[in-house]
Design goal:
Helix content: 55-70%
Shape: globular
Distance between the termini: 32 Å
Structural class: mainly alpha
Strand content: under 5%
CATH topology of one domain: Na+/H+ antiporter like fold
Radius of gyration: 21 Å
Number of helices: 16
CATH architecture of one domain: Up-down Bundle
CATH superfamily of one domain: Na+/H+ antiporter like domain
Order of helices and strands: HHEEHHHHHHHHHHHHHH
CATH class of one domain: Mainly Alpha
Strand order of the largest sheet: 1-2
Length: about 425
């Protein structure tokens, strides 16, 4: 891998964020072009059926993207979660407690703000989880614009918080956005997952059998009523972390999937789901309770919840915050960039009907304000910090490649 100034553009931290931004702008332009309505109908037009009986689904491009391609996204997230839990900072409960507290606060506060805006309309309350999510790629992409002026611990804190946030979003999807459960399909999914765990236990290290079983698991999940993307996370937990001869099947899979997720799957999802159709959208759409609840949750709920709960945890655990108060606030504002995960949950909550437009206005508007405000606050409170090439950047690359985060603090020379 190229390092430092020699890095290719696609290896830079900002690259996924820029690609996602470009896909979002293109989606906006396409859906507001003269053929925008035809494009929408094309995405929704069925061309077959998947599943059977109560679990049958009309097959269209939106289903392929949101229930098919996004399974790979969740598989990648699951691999990252397992790596961080088995060999990363989450292995130590005390080290994980601080970002975990921040992540919980950053999910609860936005949800409460959304509920406050929509309490008068019970049908709208289904979207309570939309502003509770953080988009890792965008948040880390924006914070990387300030380079090494950002305290090293703050970037790691944001990364850990966003990963835990993703785990929370996965649990929310599994528990609150599943419906019409089909018993035999759930049973088939359970048997398949147990078989995958037994394969791990038996020492099978080849990834191909796990991919095949993961595909079977996805099929059962698709017709079970539990959202199919959960199959990606479950598959990730079954992938072996280490093999006796050295190397890691899990890290091999994670690195193989990373460019496809960041530069193909997420941009494709943004193209299909981020476009806000302005035709017929007026002030009433901008001021819709759903749009206001989402935007307020992202812009205000995220920083309030994260900062408050993080400092409470610091006091309880007698730990220092990773940065000063102003820098913590700026970082927490960046966590209000919901985008991919917020749009995904919004799609689960309200589909692609009339309520999809206020959802997208709220997510895009709230994420944009959070990005600009967070970047401004961080830039102000990081002023005067000399930009130097810090060891952390090299350590993170090594840690990601080896999957052993805690080794970055180990002595760099052999002990006598």
């Amino acid at each position: 891998m190229a390092t430092g100034a020699a890095k290719h553009w696609w290896e830079r931290d900002t690259a996924p964020g820029y690609v996602l931004l470009a896909a979002t702008i293109l989606s906006f332009l396409l859906f507001n072009a003269p053929f925008g309505e035809a494009l929408h109908h094309w995405l929704e037009s069925p061309f077959g059926t998947v599943g059977f009986g109560e679990g049958a689904h009309a097959l269209n491009l939106h289903l392929v993207i949101n229930d098919g391609l996004m399974v790979i996204f969740f598989l990648y997230v699951g691999l990252e979660l397992k790596r961080e839990t088995v060999e990363g900072p989450f292995k130590n409960p005390r080290e994980a407690a601080l970002p975990m507290a921040g992540a919980v606060g950053g999910m609860v506060a936005p949800a409460l703000i959304y509920v406050a805006f929509n309490a008068q309309e019970p049908a709208f309350l289904r979207g309570w989880a939309i502003p509770a999510a953080t988009d890792i790629a965008f948040a880390l992409g924006v914070i990387s614009l300030l380079g090494p002026r950002v305290p090293p611990g703050l970037r790691l804190f944001l990364l850990a918080l966003a990963i835990i946030d993703d785990l929370g979003a996965i649990l929310v999807i599994a528990l609150f956005y599943s419906s019409h459960l089909t018993g035999w399909a759930l049973g088939g999914a359970a048997v398949t997952y147990i078989a995958m765990l037994l394969m791990n236990r038996a020492g099978i290290k080849s990834l191909l059998p796990f991919w095949i079983m993961g595909l079977v698991l996805w099929g059962f999940m698709l017709v079970s009523g539990v959202h199919a993307t959960i199959a990606g996370v479950l598959t990730a937990t079954a992938i072996p972390m280490r093999q006796k001869g050295g190397g890691s099947p899990l890290i091999t899979a994670e690195h193989a999937l990373k460019p496809w997720v960041q530069f193909a799957i997420m941009p494709i999802f943004a193209l299909a789901n981020a476009g806000v159709i302005l035709h017929g959208a007026g002030l009433d759409t901008l001021l819709h309770p759903i749009a206001l609840g989402i935007a307020a949750g992202l812009v205000f709920g995220k920083p309030i919840g994260i900062v408050l709960c993080s400092y409470i945890a610091c006091a309880v655990l007698k730990q220092r915050a990773p940065a000063n108060f102003g820098q913590m606030v700026g970082m927490a504002m960046l966590a209000g960039i919901g985008f991919t995960m917020s749009l995904f949950i919004g799609n689960l909550a309200f589909g692609v009907g009339d309520l999809a437009t206020p959802v997208r206005f709220g997510v895009l508007g709230g994420s944009l304000i959070s990005a600009l405000a967070g970047l401004s606050v961080l830039a102000y409170f990081c002023r005067g910090v000399l930009p130097t090439r810090d060891q952390l950047g090299r350590d993170e690359d090594t840690a990601e490649a080896r999957g052993v985060i805690e080794d970055i603090d180990a002595p760099r020379t052999p002990k006598p």
